[in-house]
Amino acid sequence: MTTREAYMAHLDIGGLDAWWRAANYVSVGQIYLRDNALLTRPLVGEDVKARLLGHWGTTPGLNFVYTHLNRVISERRQEMLFVTGPGHGGPANVANAWLEGTYSEIYSNIGSDGAGLNALFKQFSYPGGIPSHAAPETPGSIHEGGELGYSLAHAYGAVFDNPSLIAVAVVGDGEAETGPLATSWHSTSFVDPAVDGAVLPILHLNGYKIANPTVLARMPEEQLRQLMYGYGYDPHFVTVSDPRATEAAHRDFAAVLDTCIDEIHDIQERARTSPAGGDAGAPRWPMIVLRSPKGWTGPAEVDGKPVEGTWRAHQVPLSEIHDNEEHLHQLEEWLRSYDPGSLFTDDGGLRPEIARLAPDGDLRMSATPYANGGRLLRDLVVPAYAEHAVEVARPGSEKVSPMITAGGYLRDIIERNPHNFRLFGPDETASNRLSAVYEVTDKVWQPRIEDVDEHLARSGRVMEVLSEHLCQGWLEGYLLTGRHGVFSCYEAFVHIVDSMFNQYAKWLEIHRRLPWRQPMASFTYMLSSHVWQQDHNGFSHQDPGFIDHVVNKKADVIRVYLPPDANTMLAVTDHCLQARDTINVIVTGKQPTPTWFGPEEARLHVTRGIGVLDFAGSEESGVEPDVVLGCAGDVPTLEAIAAAGLLKAGIPGLKIRVVNVVDLMRLQDSTEHPHGLSAREFDTLFTTSKPVIFAYHGYPWLIHRLTYRRNNHPNLHVRGYKEEGTTTTPFDMAMLNQIDRFQLAMDVIDRVPTLGATEARFRQDLQDQRQRAWQYTRDAGKDLESITGWTLDESSPDDAK
After folding, report:
1. What is the C-alpha to C-alpha distance for residues 652 and 1, in angstroms, rounded to an integer?
2. Has residue 379 been placed in a domain?
3. Where is the Xylulose 5-phosphate/Fructose 6-phosphate phosphoketolase N-terminal domain positioned along the sequence (predicted)?
4. Under DSSP, is residue 48 helix (H, G, I), strand (E, B) or coil?
5. What pLDDT, in 10s, does the model give residues 133-183?
6. Burial of 760 (C-beta count, 10 Å sphere; 0-12/13-18/19+)
7. pLDDT tens-digit profile of 556-565?
8. Around Cβ 548, how many Cβ atoms within 10 Å?
9. What residues contact residue 483 under an 8 Å CB cut-off, 6+ apart?
10. One domain for residues 226 and 95
């Protein structure tokens, strides 16, 4: 007998099976019962919830895996994180957290006795209770289970820079059909075994989704083996062919699990002890393919139709308890099949001989600090703001790329924080002008590296893969487990992760309400190559609507910043990377643009979030302006300032106020958003009765939506992107969408009542200048030098007329 065989012969099958039965019992009880949790009397209809909600089908498989991971944790003192791909299997996560004692430690109203078990059952999918899926309320969870596809990316994000952690990602076979999950298998190419932890994927094939078979479950085993091998894994198969042969299932799975953990440790030891960093190229990581019946241990048949092992087990197998006496009888048989008397004491607590099988303290997967990342979070060491700020002799005199400035700042962040900050992006770090980071780090890459490649290495702080889904999922997992990071992306294509953003925003909203969850580093999107820069790209690259999507979420979570120049970009980035529990969206250009603010002015302007640009306007102190020119975004700000210059030169007596918005949420009322302006503050800036011409980076109706309750909203006219343009010059893009300086100046003439009849000739001159600029782009293929070389002090009456 080998050492392994001897070890397996002494495996505590009885203990494993007892824990599994207890977890299954507690899971079924959550779906069905509101009373009589321990079946101390015969079950009656009043014991059962009026509305039966939940998902049984995947739950027993999750409980089975969780049970065996606890054994490994206890024997090896191995830190583990449990990531539940089949998120509707939430009963399993809650059941195991209660069995481990964590649930009662966090929620004192849910005790570890019979009364607590009754309360645990009643709250599940119940008004005022908890959701049916893995959720922020669930101890040990970092994964919102309401939408499928993100578990594997989250697991990999969790292990980056966590060398002692193994994240076990249970991937449902329905989930495996989603796009985000499919690309997540490639994450093996980005895990550095020398500095990172490991992910153990468990592909759980129970054969069915809600009503259909699953692709991978119907795939021949050899074909599936080749598929996973091609992804870079060494697949180990465990098949439960007889659902009643549970002892064999326990032994088979225990043996394979131990083999996989050994393989992981071997890979890591080679990488961490070899002078060359281990084997060249990406290692082949182990994974498990577990085939078990859907609804395992549940009713085999209901109403004469097969249930266990079919799609009928997906949700609630016995759904007519209150109308069908046979269903009630089957439910009681089902619950008693787990022999609750052998699992729980007379007072309802878990029997001590079973309870001792749980890991202790923070090693419990329901109590691990990796699932409550704020417990592990360390503040970033940030560079001094002044080290990167651009000195400005006068507003607009210096042209600097905001993204290049941000790149230098991120370079120093990476240098000062070599173990807890990463930059994520879909092959666009250099394109978005953040290349300065490569002065101190490389891009992580485990496959073959060739001589022609640049900035590729086994270790590095930049994560580039051409999948926005994967970048989003990695960063979510990285933040949720206590680190910091940024997601840099082209503005138009960040929409690919709209749904992932939704789920994360919902998670964060609930997370903020739970006192036991500690604050996390904020999620920061840095979006560039934006809609107004189409020198190389066309209509497909034009979509500023991610902002619209973002502001649909709860105000406590959302922040949107549109820095107009390099120094405000620097100040915004500095702020966002030190924020907690928010989602920050920063949108700015990558091309050199005028720098309007000196270092100190920029910091003050960002702190205010909105402010009057005295250098651009012509209003007199103590006198109300005739018109307000508002702007948000780098190109709209440039055009608004230039429009003000045309108007000052052409209509010298006109009193113009220019208001720039950096923090877009300042436009909302203070009762609707924590950054919002009070009614008095808003009226002070925008007046209560004067025309407001607003040049905005994105779709114009968002500004109306944010300000529709304001006193002066009827006088607000917004110019923004309106789906016009292709590959063209920057100023032509502005003209096509009517946010150019000439159009804004004409808008002022049209909306200031005293100007319409007196400034017809000036308006005509503006039209003519606009037409000449448009024609020049068609004739010369570029913008007029008077546009590209314009500076703040160039406008004069002669130029304007």
Report:
1. 99
2. no
3. 12-375
4. strand
5. 889 999 999 987 778 899 999 999 999 999 999 999 999 999 999 999 999
6. exposed
7. 999 999 999 9
8. 15
9. 160, 161, 373, 377, 420, 421, 422, 521
10. yes
